Fold this sequence. Notes:
Helices cover 39% and strands 18% of the residues. The chain has 164 residues and is of the alpha/beta class. It has one domain (2-147): Cobalamin-binding domain (Rossmann fold, 3-Layer(aba) Sandwich), CATH 3.40.50. A seven-stranded mixed β-sheet has the order 2-1-3-4-5-6-7, sandwiched between helices. α1 links the parallel β1 (2-7) and β2. The longest helix is centred in the middle third of the chain and has 14 residues, at 74-87. The radius of gyration is 14 Å and the shape is globular. The two termini are 20 Å apart. The structure holds cobalamin. Residues 11, 17-18, 20-21, 23-25, 27-28, 65, 67, 69-71, 94, 96-99, 119, 122-124, 127 line the site of cobalamin.
Amino acid sequence: MRFLGVHPGPLLYSKIFLRLEPLGLELVAQAVRRAGHEVRLIDLQVEDHAAFFRLVDDWRPDVVGFSGNYLANIPEIVDLAKAIKARSPETFVCVGGHSASFTAATLIEHGAGAIDCVLKGEGEAAMPLLLDAVEGGRNIALVPGAVTPAGKDRRRSLSIPSTI
Ligand code: B12
């Protein structure tokens, strides 16, 4: 599958910001690549939304995963998720990261159908499982750590396996 990992832009849509290397998203991306998927990343701290939509339109990812480590990025993530679904409803949209993990149910609610899943916890182990489930048309809610509009899985999130 084609996986596009997205780091959101400067905090609070401001122009005063640090540019942080998206370390967590990079780890998730590498785990997904090792699982045999095609991967691209875009960092909206340095690219603009026009570049993001060009990439979505041209490359047509099957799954878009946002990194939600900072609460202040959540409004942008919700806006972008809605914009993706308006352009290509078949694209699966998920959000992971620290802040997404503890606001999962609210994030799904604010997404109003545009966020298919919040994947709680460390993403290296769970993201390949989520991609397999999406590809195989299986129940997403059975992926450990997945919270979906249909409800949350009661199993605990995965931690990083020692092989990664
Ligand atoms: C190191 C760090 C920094 C570094 C940045 C390093 C970097 N390159 O990102 C520095 C010192 C610069 C920094 C700055 C700030 N930070 Co800081 N930072 C941290 C800290 C301690 C660790 C983050 C980290 O690098 N973790 C290691 C990486 C590998 O893990 P990760 O990014 O979490 O990613 C994993 C998962 O989250 C998940 N994941 C991530 N993305 C995705 C995407 C998908 C699709 C999936 C499935 C999973 C997934 O899988 C990843 C791999 O396991 C966290 C606290 C914490 N323990 O998480 C605070 C934390 C993130 N920071 C915080 C804050 C407030 C800030 C500042 C705003 C502080 C300030 N007032 O200036 C600034 C903002 C910077 C900005 N964005 O502009 C808060 C955020 C609070 C919130 N809820 O919004 C935190 C949670 C600390 C806290 N408890 O208050 N920070």
